[in-house]
Amino acid sequence: MSKKNGIDEFTAQMIMADDTFSSAATEFVNDPEFAQAWDNLDMGKLTKQYDKFVTSATAYNHVHRMERRLWSLKMGKGYIPSNLETKFRQRIPSAISQYSRAFHSAEGCLDALESAEFGPVLQRHLHKFTGCLFDKDHPFREAMERHFTQMGCSAKMIAEFEDAFPGAGHDPIAVIGNGDFSNLRYAMQEGIEAQVKALRHTHDHGFDYLHGRCGPPAWAVTASQVLAYFGISMSAWVVISIVSVVIVLLITLCATNSLPSWVLSKCDYLSLKLNFTF
Question: Which domain holds residue 148?
Fold first, then answer.
């Protein structure tokens, strides 16, 4: 089956076949500020930075999956064999570098969208698309899940992220950015700093913050600030979800020719330069 912009046409058509999504997409494209924002958008910068994010985040997620397995081991057995903990701790400096590179690129994506003055448009419309992510049968959710799975996120990681959102119709810009797209970078920076602190704690002290065989709550964390760090770090991934939804939305609109003819040249650039598929 032919593909446009990294997504097969059938999947894109399935997404647009949903009346709610299609109506939201029409309102998005017809927003009075959309045309100027699209004209201003540096698609080269957006796609290059997002591609770099995906590469670095995939490398980081490989280490994070190992970390989660060690969490489960300690929670189940009450201890982690010292050789496994030592090997993991040796990987942490590299993981911090990969994580930092990923979110530096994510900041570049925010810069591209904000410089194009896409913020006000997204503030008005993005929640209509993020709301679809809470419908387990929606093809847009399925496309997003496949994308994050390819990026190295496990099913449990995706479920944990989803639990961090309230419910359907959640507006991440309103909650994370206090209604202003330009505030997202501050929320993301706070989350990045918290994640790095958690990783550095593990590098220096191992998994001392976990109590094995404690029963619920599942984390069973000591009084240290590590639990708070992990909670705050989730905000950085919420910002990533916003950027990812924008990327997948644009790909879907391009793949189904749902944008005005005068914007199709940037769709071609999106297709050629963005190196991932669904």
Answer: 3-273
| Global pTM value | 0.88
Give CA separation, 43 vs 18, 46, 153, 186, 250, in Å. Answer: 27, 5, 26, 23, 11
The pLDDT tens digits for 150-202 are 999 998 888 877 776 655 447 888 888 888 999 999 999 999 999 999 999 99
Count the domains in the chain.
1
Task: Give the count of beta carbons closer than 10 Å to the beta carbon of residue 5.
Answer: 24
Amino acid at position 203, single letter: H
Residue 154 lies in a domain: yes
Spatial neighbors of 109 by CB under 8 A, at least 6 apart, are 46, 49, 50, 53, 243
pLDDT 10s digits, 34-67: 999 999 999 989 999 999 999 999 999 999 999 9
Q: Quick check: is 278 in a domain?
A: no
**Chain position carrying tokens 């109506």:** 23
CB 186 within 8 Å of CB 239? no
